[in-house]
Amino acid sequence: MNFSINRVAFIKALNVVQRAISAKTTIPILTGLKIDVTDHEIMLTGSNADISIQTTISTSNPDNELQIQATGSLVLSPARFFAEIVKKLPDRELQVDVADQYQTTIKSGNSEFNINGLDANGYPHLPEIDHEHQIELPAKLLREVISQTVIAVSKQESRPILTGVHFTLEKHLLAVATDSHRLSQREVELESPLTSPADFVIPGDSLKELSRMLDDEEDLIKLSLSENQVLFTFGETQFYSRLLEGNYPDTSRLIPNSSDTKVQFAAGELLAAVERASLLSHESRNNVIKLTIKPADKQVMITGNSPDVGKVEENLEPQALSGNDLEISFNPDYLREALRVFGSVPVEVAFTSALRPFTIKPLERPDEFIQLITPVRTF
């Protein structure tokens, strides 16, 4: 194997696949970077068993300045060490030459490194993906769906299925996450409905990593499914993630069909008030704030309290208010995280009772996005 390449282009691709490589793995070869060189391209692959990322550098792109003298495959481990070498090399051009026993020479300018490589046959194969279940989504929309739902995934491994986001696909894409204390649900109409429905759960950590890789320059993301893997394809990159096994609980029955008290706020204004109230609640062992709603008096008050530090009270100015009087207590962190994904749009917060979950929806297109939070019993 022998090739030369623009070092900046190589580093860019290297940074992409390194996201999937972990120094902590039970499979030693996965600490390495797999390099496959064909007649016309280089494929870099990184994996940690949960996610795998593969990206391609092609000779057809003149910016890559890629020249291939000999094809082949190998694994360089640890990948972190190889990446540090490449980033610190002095010249514009990088040359890689692999001799017998995978002895690898890396040259740039007057600098030359010789490192040991590994046989690529020991590297796990990427999964076969069935393209029967396949949809395309705008990158910006997919990032939005992820950010709006992944906040509600569980961090407790006692119920592994809840550590992921549940997707159902047919005429619509429905994404739901819950940790049993809160729920986030987003629905998107598909331009090209699937001929048969699909139902799967993607780990929240995988979706967070995918979201970091997407930018608004990407146009469409192609989503493909196999029995236990999902593949996202964008640009020159393929992002694989395992799927969680098991049946996701039926969350549709958790969302109230009616409410007794409704309050409308600008999401940003309510968020700022919650953050102020939580300054004191975070000093308390319970971390709870209270909302007191009196529609007849057109009054909404938020209260945070810490026995050791003090108390904060703030009268809010809702855009609209209706229904019954109510006092309800809840974890401010849940509401704060929910409000952040709404940005500055107006929202409606709907309550049923002091002990029933309440919902937050955007005033515009309320059927598309809903956040649900379970209150805290304080008596």
Share in helix:
10-25%
Poorly predicted regions are none
Please tell me the total number of domains: 3
- Spatial separation of the terminal alpha carbons: 71 Å
Rg over CA atoms: 26 Å
Per the principal axes of the C-alpha atoms, what is the gross shape? elongated
Percentage of β-strand residues: 35-45%
CATH homology group of the largest domain: DNA Polymerase III, subunit A, domain 2
Per CATH, the architecture of the largest domain is Roll
Mean pLDDT: 93
Which fold name fills CATH's third level, the topology of the largest domain?
DNA Polymerase III, Chain A, domain 2
Largest sheet: 13 strands, antiparallel
Q: What structural class is derived from the secondary structure elements?
A: alpha+beta
What is the number of beta strands? 26
Q: Which sequence of strands runs across the widest sheet? A: 5-1-7-8-9-6-2-3-4-17-16-15-10
Provide a count of the helices: 6
The CATH class of the largest domain: Alpha Beta
Subcellular location: Cytoplasm
Domain DNA polymerase III beta sliding clamp N-terminal: 1-127
Family: Belongs to the beta sliding clamp family.
Domain DNA polymerase III beta sliding clamp C-terminal: 253-376
